[in-house]
Specification:
disordered C terminus, globular
């Protein structure tokens, strides 16, 4: 069990950090180790502490510790009164060491590089070469040892060691998006080692691990449905939509995308990155904005501005999509997402399935085809597999505490149907539904219903009644920010990562 030595860290008051050494390979527990970086915000309610609550914000590849260091007790204020909030950078991620970084320009070299591949511009040999080239770069710049041991199952094993290291008999856990896969894996592998478990914005764990092209196709379809809801809201409330599209925003959007495909427009008002934008930038910008209903006003401003010849807000959102830093570099989370997913998910190892999936997405998902198929070829060509990955069945025995699965009916990244499938597969699980939009539900527009029930469950262990449904209260209103800064309305922390071919999610 790792020894922990906590010290002050970050910019938020009271946050403590430490490093923990855990086995690189759990088949050789006495062998080489990796160093995990962990942050903790101690409980703020004196005398009322229940224990530690471990949080994973999604990904894979997203740092939990950085978010905690920056926000401290302000991250989950109510929960932090009763729990120490603990954020672990998973192996290969953030300040855990070794940390994965392929050092690429994601817009030109990553799996979602532009221009997006379509059946009209498809050239198979260059597509294969580009995918293989990205893989070679990642393999050359990162130790094979860490690339071969970054599976979700190994992170669950790390989490179990850390649970013991902080003195907890049983784990309390709050996982968002990909964090629900980690939670489902933990509950399956360690069914007697947790007290409460919330899975918010849940993945269909079996499909994600064993049928990834289907999983990413589901994402493309969910994004299409979310865009349709945005268009309908625009048509109803033109003031909120900044006048974009009149009675037919969908038609206006398609005309705008076609126009930008033909000629870029300037983005001089976005001072951190005033590069002109094109149609693919518009599509990327749209995808990231749909992840939170709170970002709809920014998308509306981007569309209205682009229609008037100003791409500033489009550039802002596209940079968020690719996680572009102010200095022109790209955050490593995209590479980490790829390396973790490629090492554990059962992608086909030959080319034709990706070509078929890309053509099918082009037919079915006219705005977001690029999130699946062609863009996933790098995964199929990746030569490393984590032999300790877990592929199911994901199942929680009836003798274990019941996980609470929290799903949004119009989630653009993890479709509601997948949440129902996960509940069915786990067997012992309770579904709590939010009728609304955006990815994940906690702290996303239902304070009295969703937030209260989640907080009550984590504190007392009491589940909401079977079939409980809450409504989101997040109107499509509010001023958009100035494009001269990087500021956007508050969105879930997972939006700070890219929308890769299935989650960032």
């Amino acid at each position: 069990m790792p020894a922990l030595s906590w010290r002050p860290c970050g910019t938020a008051a009271g946050v403590l950090c430490t490093s923990a050494r855990v086995p690189l390979d759990y088949d050789q527990p006495g062998g080489r180790t990796v160093k995990l970086f962990v942050a903790r915000s101690p409980a703020t309610g004196p005398g009322r502490r229940i224990g530690s609550l471990f949080v994973n914000p999604g990904g894979p590849g997203t740092s939990a510790a950085d978010t905690l260091e920056a926000n401290g007790a302000g991250l989950f204020t109510v929960l932090n009164r009763r729990f120490d909030i603990v954020g672990m950078d998973p192996r290969g991620v953030g300040r855990s060491q070794p940390s994965i970084d392929c050092k690429v320009n994601q817009e030109k070299q990553g799996p979602l590089a532009q221009p997006f591949t379509t059946p009209r511009n498809l050239r198979v040999s260059p597509l294969v070469s580009e995918a293989a080239g990205y893989n070679r770069r990642c393999l050359a710049l990162n130790p094979t040892s860490i690339l071969a041991h970054v599976s979700t199952a190994n992170v669950a094993r790390d989490l179990n060691l850390l649970r013991r290291a902080v003195g907890e008999h049983r784990l309390n856990y709050l996982g968002f998006s990909y964090g629900t896969l980690l939670g489902s894996t933990f509950a399956t592998l360690f069914p007697r080692s947790y007290r409460t478990m919330v899975l918010d914005g849940p993945l269909d764990a079996d499909v994600y691990m064993n049928s990834p092209l289907s999983s990413s196709a589901d994402l493309a379809s969910a994004l299409e449905r979310a865009l349709g809801r945005f268009f309908r809201a625009c048509a109803v409330d033109q003031a909120a939509c900044r006048g974009f599209g009149g009675k037919n925003p969908r038609r206006a959007y398609d005309r705008l995308a076609k126009r930008l495909d033909a000629a870029r427009i300037p983005a001089a008002g976005y001072m951190p990155d005033p590069r002109p934008v094109d149609g693919d930038d518009l599509r990327a910008a749209t995808a990231i904005a749909l992840y939170s209903k709170q970002a709809w006003p920014v998308l509306a401003q981007a569309l209205a501005g682009a229609e008037a010849g100003d791409g500033s807000f489009t550039r802002l959102l596209a940079d968020l999509y690719y996680v572009r830093n102010a200095d022109g570099s790209y955050d490593q989370s995209s590479d980490r997402y790829f390396a973790i997913r490629a090492a554990e998910v059962r992608y086909p190892s030959f080319i034709q399935p990706y070509l078929r999936a890309g053509a099918r997405a082009w037919r079915n998902d006219r705005h977001f085809w690029f999130t699946t198929g062609y863009s996933e070829l790098s995964y199929g060509l990746y030569p490393i597999t984590d032999r300790d990955a877990f592929y199911g069945p994901f199942r929680v025995p009836s003798s274990s505490p019941t996980p609470l699965v929290l799903a949004t009916t119009h989630d653009p990244a993890t479709p509601y149907r997948g949440a129902k499938n996960l509940v069915r597969d786990l067997g012992n699980a309770r579904l709590l539904t939010m009728r609304g939009d955006g990815h994940t539900a906690y702290l996303n527009g239902s304070p009295d219903c969703i937030d209260g029930k989640i907080e009550s469950y984590l504190v007392t262990g009491a589940l909401p009644a079977v079939g409980t449904t809450c409504r989101q209260n997040a109107p499509f209103t509010g001023p958009a920010p100035s494009a001269r800064s990087r500021a956007v309305p508050r969105v879930p922390s997972i939006l700070q990562g890219p929308v890769m071919p299935q989650i960032r999610r």
